[in-house]
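Subject: design request, 270 residues
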């Protein structure tokens, strides 16, 4: 793929929290218009990767480019302008509980633009309509089901017509029907906006249904990648473990610990 076609280009990316390496040489090329999933075991660095793309963290080595510009070399104003073009949906959506559905979705427009209240109203209603919730504008978040709240969070994430939308575990805590609805919405909104979407998720089946490409991470590295068809056909043990939700495989079930026998004996001997 040519550079002109990629919205996010990650090259040789390393990142450590203090001295502890979390990402170790990540390369990704995410084309404009695509929806991609990043999967991997707990703590493998997925959220850290999103924060590096968003410019909240700086690489230890390597580079993240968004729309042809290195994120860590941007000045304050440039980074602010870029963030305005990025929609983020964090785990559980995190709506402002003391604001109505309407005010939640209008919030980024009021914060980041100088549009008239009349125009903000029209855009907000259009965004709510895009997620099927125009009629719910006056409700407070406490009155929403989990699936509806997630849809409001989606409407808020796309309020400013983002170039790039990042989702951190958008399906967590949803029932299977809402999960399918949110998955389809992520795809439809991406395509309608001509945006590019990156989602960190544990849901392999929803990912296979809606994304263009999947990266699997382990130990801070990309260990497998491919289109949904390639992933379904893959014999890679890592991919197999994810697709078939097996406890035993390359992704360890246990957090690293000293051998059990040694620890128990150690305690018994005291
Ligand atoms: N602010 C921080 N300071 C120090 N270490 C951190 C910080 N944030 C995350 N970590 C550590 O970095 C590693 C990667 O964390 P990250 O949240 O990116 O993983 P993840 O793949 O998103 O995990 P999960 O799927 O459980 O959300 C973890 O071991 C975590 O404990």
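Subject: RE: design request

Done. Sequence follows.
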């Amino acid at each position: 793929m040519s550079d002109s076609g990629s919205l996010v280009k990650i090259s040789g990316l390393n990142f450590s929290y203090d001295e502890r390496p979390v990402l170790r040489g990540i390369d990704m090329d995410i084309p404009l218009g695509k929806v991609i999933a990043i999967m991997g075991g707990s703590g493998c660095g997925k959220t850290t990767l999103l924060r590096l793309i968003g410019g909240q963290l700086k690489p230890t080595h390597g580079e993240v480019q968004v729309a042809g510009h290195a994120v860590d070399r941007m000045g304050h104003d440039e980074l602010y302008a870029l963030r305005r073009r990025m929609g983020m949906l964090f785990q559980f959506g995190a709506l402002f509980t003391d604001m109505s559905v309407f005010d939640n979705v209008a919030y980024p427009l009021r914060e980041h633009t100088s549009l008239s209240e009349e125009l903000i109203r029209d855009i907000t209603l259009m965004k709510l309509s895009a997620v099927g919730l125009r009629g719910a504008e006056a409700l407070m978040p406490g009155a929403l089901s989990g699936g509806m709240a997630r849809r409001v969070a989606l409407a808020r994430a796309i309020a400013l017509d983002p170039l790039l939308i990042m989702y951190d575990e958008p399906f967590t805590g949803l029932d299977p029907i809402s999960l399918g609805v949110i998955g389809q919405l992520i795809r439809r909104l991406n395509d309608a906006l001509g945006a590019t979407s990156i989602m960190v998720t544990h849901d392999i089946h929803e990912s296979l249904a809606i994304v263009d490409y999947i990266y699997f991470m382990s130990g801070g590295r990309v260990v497998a990648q491919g289109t949904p068809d390639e992933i379904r056909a893959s014999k890679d043990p890592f991919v197999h473990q994810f697709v078939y939700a097996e406890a035993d495989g390359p992704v360890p079930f246990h957090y690293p610990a000293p051998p059990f026998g040694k620890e128990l004996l150690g305690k018994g001997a005291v």
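The chain has a mean pLDDT of 89.
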